[in-house]
């Protein structure tokens, strides 16, 4: 089922839908605005009416596509499947390439026109919205950590993967969300040179625990 069809099936009520391409464009525009609104104003400060106004659509159209504010939030903070697939594929890389692959995956994801804004919305909204915070926890546990096969046993795997996740999430926050220099201005080559040894230590080094 196409994305536009999914949102129509989820909510289709009072407004007569336009052409198929128009539905997809309008739904994408609403989601883009909703991501920014939820990230900036939180759950309580975001309204369907404000989202509709910023997206230049009637509020009834937002309800028509997404049914409720709860479902709009869920759609706006849903991690793109192709990003989840790319993370899973990255964990399958050889051990001696894994650190660099993980870093490249993070940088590519945040530079992506669809994935980057969605990740930003998830991270910022999770800071003050419990449902999205739980979604972020699940994503970290099942994708950023869950795909790992590192370590000698389950405990070692979780320690190594968890430490790697702290590095990747912290890097993403500093570089892409808070945009703090010099990290925000480093080239990809500089990031890889500085951070690959740190991640590689968590991959196969002695953690001293």
Which key terms come to mind for this protein?
disordered N terminus; mainly alpha; elongated; 209 residues; single chain; 11 helices; 75% helix
What this model shows, in words?
By secondary structure, the chain is mainly alpha-helical. It contains 11 helices and no strands. The protein has helices spanning 3-11, 20-45, 48-55, 59-66, 69-76, 81-91, 95-111, 115-126, 130-145, 154-177, 188-204. Helix 1 packs across helix 2 (20-45), helix 6 (81-91) runs antiparallel to helix 7 (95-111) and helix 10 (154-177) packs antiparallel against helix 11 (188-204). The radius of gyration is 19 Å and the shape is elongated. The chain starts with a helix and ends in a 5-residue tail after the last helix. 25% of the residues are buried.
Proportion of strand residues: under 5%
How confident is the prediction overall: mean pLDDT?
87
Gyration radius (Cα, Å) is: 19 Å
Please count the helical segments: 11
Q: From N to C, what is the helix and strand string?
A: HHHHHHHHHHH
Looking at the structure, what is the overall shape? elongated
**Number of strand elements:** 0
Main beta sheet? none
End-to-end span in angstroms?
48 Å
Helix content class? over 70%
Ranges where pLDDT stays below 50 over 5 or more residues in a row are 1-21
| Oligomer kind | single chain
* Class derived from helix and strand content: mainly alpha
């Amino acid at each position: 089922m196409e994305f536009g069809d999914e949102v129509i099936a989820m909510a289709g009520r009072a407004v007569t839908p336009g052409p198929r391409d128009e539905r997809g464009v309008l739904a994408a525009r609403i989601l883009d605005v909703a991501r920014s609104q939820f990230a900036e104003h939180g759950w309580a400060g975001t309204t369907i009416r404000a989202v509709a106004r910023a997206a230049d659509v009637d509020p009834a159209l937002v309800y028509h596509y997404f049914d409720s504010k709860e479902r709009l939030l869920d759609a706006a903070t849903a991690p793109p499947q192709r990003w989840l697939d790319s993370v899973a594929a990255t964990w399958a890389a050889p051990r001696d390439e894994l650190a660099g692959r993980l870093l490249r995956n993070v940088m590519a994801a945040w530079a992506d026109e669809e994935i980057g804004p969605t990740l930003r919305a998830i991270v910022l909204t999770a800071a003050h919205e419990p449902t999205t915070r739980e979604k972020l926890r699940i994503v970290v546990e099942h994708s950023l950590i869950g795909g790992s096969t590192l370590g000698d046993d389950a405990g070692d795997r979780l320690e190594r993967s968890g430490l790697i996740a702290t590095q990747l999430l912290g890097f993403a926050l500093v570089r892409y969300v808070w945009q703090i220099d010099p990290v925000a201005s480093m080239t990809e080559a500089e990031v890889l040179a500085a951070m690959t040894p740190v991640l590689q230590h968590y991959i196969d080094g002695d953690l001293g625990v």
